[in-house]
Design a protein that fits this description.
4 helices; 10-stranded mixed β-sheet; 24-stranded antiparallel beta barrel; about 775 residues; 42 strands
Length: about 775
């Protein structure tokens, strides 16, 4: 009892100190610790000791059950941090050899650094007890974390019979900071994650759950008087070798393989022109992805799938380009010959600009009921600009501009946005955008052909009557005028306290709005949303630690006032023992089907209004070290988009991630979906994504990935002609060695094949052997 009283009093004092913005000094020591995880260097005795003694999640500022101490100092070139993480049961420590950024579920220690001390973003560096690195950037403006960002830093970990130690060195050139000041001030948080029955977040600071901005509450540290960023030049040459073969298996001679051998050198340059401005340049870049994307099942969807960016050139300072809406989605840029990017931040001003060309042109054609992506074999130019000014701690304003153009096509967009936080619990977001798009008739013809449209209904001077394809209403729209000028806006407000949250938003996107550089899959809609969430917090002795009830209601019309969708949903979620989580919800939705007998993405007089009722649940558990199991279930009546009716849908997605020892991991994900309508089956779809990885050490691994798709359709229950069966198989064998995120070696083999009604068996149509090497020179 006495300990609890003392801890409560210390908590009040800590909160008071935080409110007064107490600043502590970090020592300068002209020495470099050896990063080996042993903590036996004498320099650590001179470092600042910081206790990590607060449970900040799922509880709010309760005493830590374990002892953790951080030792911190800087030498003008690097920030050195050591963690001594005691554990009364070291056999329960969860730590595995994994690839970088894949150990987030392990025991971890780490540090968050707001290097500009502007409460807008923070670098995150985390390490598991074996030294595996995780890093990311937390963006307070968008409330997101980008774990695709990779810095070059050093770490090592050692497990022993009292717990484990970790040492890290973060070169200051990895951070963006203002070195014009003699004494620099940065906000930092020192952390430990303890995953046992609960996953405890331990911190050196007190965190108020009533304040939605956790970066804003980080304590401040001064020092770094001799720290200079210098030019920080990085030169990264790369070489990609590939030997690929492809064939047309729908043709008459499937034995006719076409060879394509490629040797592609490339060069990347990173230069800190000033301490506040960074230039990235790339020549003949290899923008291919080495690792296969996670398989996604799309069998009864009208909107395009989203895939995240994974390429280094676009990921560096990617948060500088973020706004409330996704207006810069760089996966649209497929194969550039060059790229130039300029980014920086100083005195509250943050900016980013990039220019690239592209050998291909991927164009999203959006409607109010769906979207499609058309890939054209023609060159394009791409540019994006983002600027943000942080007026004060509570107000940020920004602007985004993008441009894409080709010989007979141009899309321009300009946007203005603001985020205002008058209190710790209230947030207002506003974004206004306008676009101008010009498609020539020849370009629209290409879109029509690429979208498999029925051009017989289009003007004869644009599409030939002999063509047989289902047209896209959005394409027809642009053929009727020379230019499209579209407007859109977003307004939202949120009040968020410790126990409850209320929110409302309104979005309006005009029919002619286009954000071709971004990911905007729906236009011609006006959506109002409002909702509420209530949270309960358990005590340390409860079997549950957190519960929340959520509900929202939304309604969407097009610009003509026609109802597109009206939905109400509610769900109850509970975090329980063995790191378990269960979420149960129900939904009722009225929504439009797609045009009968047309593949249009727009509402018209033939679009019917249907009612959907769904029940769903998501469950996951991490009962022991190295095991994760999850299950997503949905059932109810759902619109059959291909046939403009309602059917009965069942969906299941089990996920299992299993470690067999410290080095071998199995990842299995399966998606199953079936739909019945009018008393008969419509389709049954299965997608399996299985990956086996042997991680030799923290630098290298061997992985095999298999993605298999099997879709079985009842052709007699479809209006239009479809394949009765489709099977697809992709496999990849990959060896990876990473000295750091930019000095890497990859070698592997990948192939693809499929089977449809015209083929008697699954046949490969592509196979590739590839190797990639890059080396980073840092100056």
């Amino acid at each position: 009892m006495i300990n609890k009283v003392i801890f409560a009093l210390s908590s009040l004092l800590a909160v008071s100190a935080s409110a007064n913005q107490t600043v502590e000094a970090l020592p300068f020591i002209d020495a470099s610790a050896i990063i080996d995880g042993k903590l036996d260097d004498p320099v650590w005795q001179q470092a600042k000791k910081i206790a990590i003694n607060n449970v900040t999640w799922p509880q709010e500022n309760t005493p830590s059950p374990v002892t953790t101490t951080a030792y911190v100092y800087e030498n003008g070139q690097s920030l050195f941090v050591a963690f001594k993480a005691d554990d009364p049961n070291p056999e329960l420590i969860r730590a595995f050899f994994r690839d970088r950024d894949r150990a987030w579920n392990d025991d971890l220690v780490g540090i968050k650094i707001d290097s500009f001390n502007n409460k807008r973003s923070a670098y995150q560096f985390f390490i598991n007890p074996l030294g595996v690195q995780q890093d990311s950037i937390e963006n307070e403006l968008t409330k997101s974390e980008n774990n695709s960002w990779n810095g070059i830093w050093d770490s090592a970990g050692v497990i022993h019979d009292q717990g484990y130690n970790v040492e890290i060195e973060i070169p200051l050139r990895v951070l963006n900071f203002d070195d014009s000041k003699q004494v620099k001030q940065m906000a930092m948080e020192f952390l430990r994650f303890l995953p046992r029955d609960q996953r405890l977040r331990l911190s050196n600071m007190q965190i108020s759950h009533a304040n939605n901005c956790w970066i804003c509450q980080m304590p401040q540290y001064t020092g770094f008087e001799s720290a200079k960023q210098g030019n920080n030049i990085a030169v990264i040459p790369s070489l990609v070798l590939s030997k690929s073969q492809s064939r047309d298996i729908d043709g008459s001679d499937i034995s006719d393989w076409k060879d394509n051998d490629s040797t592609e050198p490339s060069l990347d340059l990173k230069w800190a022109i000033t301490p506040d401005t960074t230039l990235n340049a790339t020549l003949n870049p290899d923008f291919s992805q080495v690792e296969a994307d996670t398989g996604q099942l799309s069998v009864n969807d009208s909107f395009s799938l989203f895939f995240p960016e994974k390429r280094a050139f676009f990921l560096d300072n990617a948060d500088y380009f973020s706004s409330h809406l996704n207006l810069i989605h760089t996966r649209n840029i497929a194969a550039p010959d060059f790229g130039v990017k300029l980014s920086g931040s100083k005195s509250g001003h943050t900016y980013g600009l990039f220019l690239t060309n592209d050998e291909h042109l991927n164009v999203m054609v959006p409607g109010n009921l769906g979207s499609s992506i058309v890939s054209l074999e023609q060159k394009s130019n791409n540019a994006a600009l983002r600027y943000r000014f942080d007026v004060n701690d509570g107000l940020s304003v920004g602007s985004t501009a993008t441009l894409r153009d080709s010989d007979d096509y141009k899309n321009q967009l300009v946007s203005f946005d603001a985020k205002y936080q008058p209190t710790a619990s209230d947030t207002f977001n506003v974004q206004i955008l306008g676009s101008n798009t010009n498609y020539s008739h020849a370009f629209a013809q290409e879109l029509c052909d690429g979208d498999d449209g029925d051009c017989a209904t289009l003007p004869t001077e644009v599409c030939s009557v002999e063509q047989d394809c289902d047209y896209n209403e959005s394409v027809l729209r642009v053929l009727e005028q020379d230019d499209l000028n579209g407007l859109g806006y977003l307004v939202d407000y949120e009040h968020n306290t410790k126990h409850w949250r209320a929110f409302t938003s309104y979005q309006s996107y005009g029919a002619d709005l286009r954000a071709d550089m971004g990911f905007m899959s729906q236009v011609d809609f006006n959506k109002f949303l409002t909702g509420f969430e209530y949270r309960w917090y358990g005590e340390q002795h409860n079997w549950w630690n957190r519960a929340r009830w959520y509900t929202d209601w939304d309604i969407t019309h097009n610009d003509d006032g026609d109802l597109l969708e009206k939905e109400v949903q509610t769900n109850l979620a509970i975090d329980g023992p063995l790191q378990s989580f269960i979420d149960f919800g129900v939904e009722h939705r009225n929504r439009r089907g797609l045009r009968h007998n047309k593949a249009s993405l727009q509402i018209d007089n033939n679009s019917d209004l249907f009612s959907e009722n769904l029940i769903w649940t998501y469950m996951e558990i991490k009962p022991v070290s190295g095991l994760f199991a999850g299950l997503n279930l949905r059932t109810g009546n759902k619109v059959d988009l291909a046939n403009n009716r309602v059917g009965k849908m069942h969906f299941a997605r089990p996920v299992i991630n299993l470690n067999l020892g410290k080095h071998f991991e199995v990842n299995f994900r399966h998606s199953y979906e079936t739909l019945d309508a009018d008393g008969a089956k419509v389709y049954t779809a299965n997608l399996t994504d299985a990956r086996l990885t042997y991680q030799f050490n923290i630098n290298s691994y061997l992985r095999i990935a298999v993605i298999y798709t099997d879709i079985d359709r009842n052709v007699s229950n479809y209006i239009d002609e479809v394949d009765a069966n489709y099977k697809g198989l992709s496999t990849q064998l990959l060896y990876s060695y990473k000295l750091n995120p930019q000095t890497i070696f990859f070698a592997g083999y990948a192939d693809n094949g499929y089977q449809d009604d015209d083929l008697s068996r699954l046949i490969k149509d592509e196979k590739t052997f590839f190797a990639k090497f890059s080396y980073a020179w840092l100056m």
